[in-house]
């Protein structure tokens, strides 16, 4: 199963990196969010805040790509008529879908470089990573955790052909609740416990703390813990939903 | 008369097909949920930054909902036909092209205006923004002007769909740029001069400005020049879009590339 997952991640990352036009979207979206944040937050005259906003914009895109990658890949296979073959293959469906989600998140890491370079060039954002090692570990940990959260979402895509739209609708709520650009302390108090359950909260904190030289390791640890929990929940949901879709005969419905 | 029939019957059919494909229980939370949370996201970002009022972000992002539906509705009309491999058949028909594609986009535009109005009302209640009832007429007028201009730009994007296969991604990128350039989320005076020049030539900028002025108490007459500018921008894109549609259809037929996917 592990070789299947690793091969899948490599394959989907290569596939997602092939089309320069699609990649332009990966670069443009976070840059624009970082630009908006920079123009607005510039008023506070805190350069480190702008660095944090650039990282937040990158994690925002990471989540978007996970949603799009997991649902888009399944939808594509439905259109091509290959989803039943994938489901019927002896490889567990989790090992097929998890790499799609994680690869989506890893493609989102391109955005980190793009937003940091954009911020440095246009807004004089000081790109100084205080703990490079923690940052180097934090970025893939963040991608893994966000990708695994996508696995839970992907489970519903097996069942519902239009679940993509629900997935897209989760973008802004997740961005708000996880405090990627707006501090959670500014939001109503009921939001805080919800944020603890979502990977982007910890993933963003991990890379933010590493960049700003604070204490990233507990957050990185939380990323790995959440990844394992999501894998168990997502895997179980996939098995259950796959059974339901098979029994209803609804896998191929486009 | 036949053109009008193509617009409305085609639009009604495509709308019915949409709801045959997607359950309203998924469609409604998606179409309403996205703009509502978008408005809240930027309003909270504005509060955090201490820049502008909630009303500023409320108006700007409610209008973006119109842009999204106008541009995607029109832009995706050709891409959807290509994807379902019906584009060549559709273009073989003698029907007016603009009427065919406008018919497909019209329901999206109407939905967009409804979504913008609903999300505006919901978020105004959540954020505690009060807009006087006397402003509703002017806001509706600004909505129509912005919807027209965005649909016209969508026509240009849709025409590109006759030649390229990634117009949805392109429309996505254009929408993303409008978050900044239209002044929906960043006050125009904070943007560089060259961006402000671009802003004045794209849909939405003048519509948003007019809507903000009206929501702040200005009369329709006081914002008439802005509304006229928005309509004029839309008219220019409409002409460009119609030319592109004709040109790219001709090229697509000549190079037999209509069904390339």
Describe this structure in words.
The complex is a heterodimer of chains A (254) and B (261). Chain A is mostly helical and 254 residues long. Chain A has one domain (2-248). Chain A contains 12 helices and no strands. Chain A is globular, with a radius of gyration of 18 Å. The two termini of chain A are 29 Å apart. Chain B has 261 residues and is mostly helical. Chain B has one domain. Helices cover 78% and strands 0% of the residues of chain B. Chain B has 10 helices and no strands. Chain B has helices at residues 2-21, 24-49, 54-83, 87-92, 97-127, 136-160, 167-181, 193-200, 205-215, 224-254. The two termini of chain B are 34 Å apart. The A-B interface holds A 19, 21-22, 24-25, 28-29, 32-33, 35-37, 39-44, 79, 160, 162-163, 165-166, 168-169, 171-173, 175-176, 181-183, 186-187 and B 21-23, 26-27, 29-30, 33-34, 37-38, 40-42, 44-51, 83, 166, 169-170, 172-173, 176-177, 179-180, 185-186, 190-191.
Distance between the termini of chain A: 29 Å
- The SSE string of chain A, one letter per element, is HHHHHHHHHHHH
The largest pleated sheet of chain B is described as: none
Weakly predicted, low-confidence segments of chain A: none
What's the total helix number of chain B? 10
Helix content of chain A: over 70%
Amount of beta strand of chain B: under 5%
- What does the radius of gyration of chain B come to? 19 Å
End-to-end CA span of chain B: 34 Å
Overall body shape of chain A: globular
Give a count of the beta strands of chain B, DSSP E runs of length 2 or more: 0
């Amino acid at each position: 199963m592990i070789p299947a997952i690793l091969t899948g991640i490599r394959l989907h990352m290569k596939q997602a990196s092939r089309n320069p036009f699609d990649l332009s979207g990966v670069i443009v979206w976070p840059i624009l969010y970082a630009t908006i944040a920079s123009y607005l937050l510039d008023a506070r005259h805190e350069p480190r805040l702008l660095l944090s906003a650039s990282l937040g914009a990158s994690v925002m895109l990471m989540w978007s790509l996970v949603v799009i990658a997991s649902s888009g890949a399944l939808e594509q296979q439905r259109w091509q008529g290959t989803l039943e073959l994938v489901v019927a293959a002896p490889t567990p469906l989790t090992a097929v879908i998890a790499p799609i989600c994680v690869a989506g998140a890893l493609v989102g890491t391109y955005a980190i470089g793009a937003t940091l370079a954009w911020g440095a060039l246009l807004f004089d954002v000081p790109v100084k990573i205080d703990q490079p090692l923690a940052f180097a570990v934090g970025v893939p940990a963040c991608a893994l955790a966000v990708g695994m959260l996508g696995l839970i979402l992907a489970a519903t895509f097996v069942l519902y052909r239009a679940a993509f739209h629900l997935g897209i609708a989760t973008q802004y709520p997740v961005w708000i609740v996880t405090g990627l650009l707006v501090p959670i302390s500014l939001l109503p108090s009921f939001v805080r416990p919800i944020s603890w359950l979502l990977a982007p909260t910890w993933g963003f904190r991990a890379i933010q703390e590493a960049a700003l030289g604070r204490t990233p390791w507990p957050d990185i640890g939380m990323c790995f813990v959440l990844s394992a929990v999501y894998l168990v929940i997502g895997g179980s949901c996939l098995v259950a939903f796959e059974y339901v879709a098979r029994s209803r005969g609804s896998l191929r419905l486009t | 008369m036949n053109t009008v029939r193509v617009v409305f019957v085609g639009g009604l059919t495509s709308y019915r097909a949409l709801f045959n494909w997607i359950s309203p229980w998924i469609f409604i939370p998606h179409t309403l949920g996205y703009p509502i949370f978008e408005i809240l996201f930027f309003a909270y970002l504005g509060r955090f930054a201490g820049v502008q009022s909630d009303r500023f972000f409320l108006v700007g992002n409610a209008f973006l909902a119109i842009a999204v539906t106008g541009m995607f509705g029109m832009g995706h009309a050709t891409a959807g036909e290509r994807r379902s491999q019906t584009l060549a058949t559709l273009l073989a028909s003698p029907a007016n092209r603009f009427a065919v594609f406008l018919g497909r986009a019209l329901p999206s535009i109407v939905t967009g205006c409804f979504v913008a109005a609903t999300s505006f009302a919901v978020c105004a209640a959540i954020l505690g923004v009060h807009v006087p009832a006397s402003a509703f007429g002017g806001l509706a007028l600004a909505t129509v002007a912005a919807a027209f201009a965005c649909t016209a730009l969508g026509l240009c994007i849709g025409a590109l769909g006759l030649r390229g296969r990634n117009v949805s991604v392109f429309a996505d990128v254009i929408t993303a740029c409008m978050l900044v350039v239209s002044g929906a989320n960043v006050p125009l005076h904070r943007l560089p001069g060259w961006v402000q020049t671009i802003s004045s030539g794209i849909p939405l900028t003048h519509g948003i400005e007019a809507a903000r002025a009206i929501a702040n108490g200005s009369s329709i007459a006081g914002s008439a020049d802005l509304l006229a500018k928005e309509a004029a921008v839309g008219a220019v894109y409409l002409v460009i879009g119609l030319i592109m549609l004709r040109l790219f259809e001709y090229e697509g037929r000549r190079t037999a590339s209509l069904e390339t996917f």
